[in-house]
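Student: Send me a single protein entry containing the residue sequence and its fold in token form, directly below this note:

Tutor:
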Amino acid sequence: MTSPRVIRVIAAVVLVGLVVGTAGPVTLRLVALASVADGLGFDPPRPLAPEVVREPGVLGGVEVDRYRPVAAERRGRLPDNVTVSTPRALSRPAIVLLPGATPPGRDDRRVVAIATAIARADRVVLVPELEVYDEQLLPADIERITDVAIAAAAEQPGVVLAGLSFGGSLGMIAAADPRLDDRVRLVATFGAYADLAGVVQAVTTGISLVDGDPISWDPDPRAGDVVREQLLGLLDPEDRAQVTEALDDDLDVTELRPELRAVHDLLTDPDPARTFDHLTAAPVRVQQRIAEVSPVRAAPRLAAPLVSLHAVDDPVIPIGEQRRFEASYPQTRTMELTTFDHVGLTDQEHGWWVTVQDLWQTARFVHAVLDAR
């Protein structure tokens, strides 16, 4: 039986042939494909790619890791005293990479691999320090992203905000800040949500309702616990204890105050048509937090170009959120994947042609990031 990795390698070889055989400029397409393979850990040969240095620092008052392609005098050799970025990298928008929840944060090996792969395509990549790494969705992160983007745009011709999972959603909201008008060249999201309330809806009912259309979803078994923890964490300790008792059947739900009953029902009602009504009746703090970190609520008039990539069987963020992007932002270019789960490859076996299609879609996504001007 052919292993999934072998199938992916075969698919990548076939895809290179298809790209090269396509009419029109192919250089950036090949660079995008190489960046995808590099970021996925295939370690493709990139003899013409520049060396990359990772430098911790502060930008816009925020701690960041800056990945810079460095101009060296000799190919393959990086003198200690060389710190000048390549001219091409400085002439293009800086790419602000926004990971989602990942406890290692900026040191996550996948984050480092992706940032390095993109930087090797002659781009400056910035990875800010964010609280979302610890599964905290906070407005303060949006301010941090905005501050980094403003500072980066002052150094280079604009910025691209490229976010994974929750990071993509926060990046969308930051992109709508008036201080970044005409500075955001592209917002690129992979596995992001449009409305956190929509995620709650899908987690608790198994269905996303988008413009009245039901979209079924099979969530990760842990998703319900995560949503419960996040929502209850927004309540005062005494209120949280009461709702928890009701959820655990240790307290009659009728004894809860109406706004706390709404939180209970938000987490337990299986009817997706009632989810948003429960949210409207919930405590103001719950409503505000969901609104503050939901793009369609906090940034309904986002005008920047948007490209959105999503796995059809994503177990963390429902595919319905991709449909919500399309319904809310007419400028959205959407792409979908089959061989990925959330923002990574699955271990399931797929045919080589399906893998080719997914690699092509991923390369198109990276191409959009690299081609933004």
